[in-house]
Design a protein that fits this description.
Helix content: 10-25%
CATH class: Alpha Beta
Shape: globular
Structural class: alpha+beta
Order of helices and strands: EEHEEHEEEEEHEEH
Radius of gyration: 17 Å
Distance between the termini: 36 Å
Mean pLDDT: 94
Strand content: 25-35%
CATH topology: Pseudouridine synthase
């Protein structure tokens, strides 16, 4: 893997990388080399993770180059002024072509998944997203998703809750897995303010090179 091919934006304050499927954002119990490790090799300095993506998911991840920038970026994520957009490919058309989904989620640490629970559950966390059906093929639908909150496995759990699990996501009910153990979920766009200049930044990551992603993202499709 050529690390430079993953770089989306790089300056004195932070670096944004396009995370491939199959590697963790940070070190985990497997001991596999992480995106953070690769970023530190490229930058030759310590990096700090501002947010994370699941190993099975691809797309934009940003790392701060010092604690001051980490804290400034964390504020934007905590206050939801940083806007995250995803693409998801699903096998069932959603009930509506565009909608806002609100569920209450509870993390099941043993099963390593998020469960939809009643609002009254003591451990329930409110989860909100907006989706739009952007394109379709004979078997699949491409959704664009804007995250309003940032809960564990939120997109995967909420889409499964409306009968539209992400392609390859057997943990949340898709009928079969992908050969590379990925799920067809990609963080394609991050909008935020520069932590020093306050300039508005838009960072976009191309989808993985793969037949279905190519079908949806490299040629216009009619709904």
């Amino acid at each position: 893997m050529n690390i430079s091919d993953l770089v989306l934006s790089n300056n004195h304050h932070f670096i944004a990388l396009n995370k491939p499927v199959g590697i963790p954002t940070q070190e985990d119990k497997t001991g596999d080399k992480s995106l953070l490790d690769l970023g530190e090799i490229f930058c030759k300095t310590t990096l700090y993770a501002v947010h994370r993506l699941d190993r099975t998911v691809s797309g934009v991840v940003i790392f701060a180059k010092n604690v001051r920038i980490l804290n400034a970026l964390n504020v934007q994520f905590q206050e939801h002024t940083a806007k995250k957009s995803y693409w998801a490919i699903v096998g069932n058309r959603p009930p509506k072509d565009s909608d806002t989904l609100i569920h209450y989620l509870k993390k099941d640490a043993r099963q390593k998944l998020a469960r939809v629970v009643p609002e009254t559950d003591a451990e329930a966390q409110r989860a909100e997203l907006r989706y739009t059906v952007k394109a379709s093929s004979e078997k699949y639908f491409l959704l664009e998703i804007q995250l309003i909150t940032g809960r564990f496995h939120q997109i995967r759990a909420q889409l499964a809750a409306i009968g539209c699990p992400v392609k390859g996501d057997v943990k949340y009910g898709f009928r079969r897995g992908n050969a590379d153990r990925s799920v067809h979920l990609h963080a394609h766009r991050l909008e935020l303010n520069h932590p020093v200049s306050n300039e508005k930044l838009v960072i976009e990551a191309p989808a993985p090179t793969e037949v279905l992603w190519d079908f949806f993202t490299k040629q216009p499709q009619v709904l």
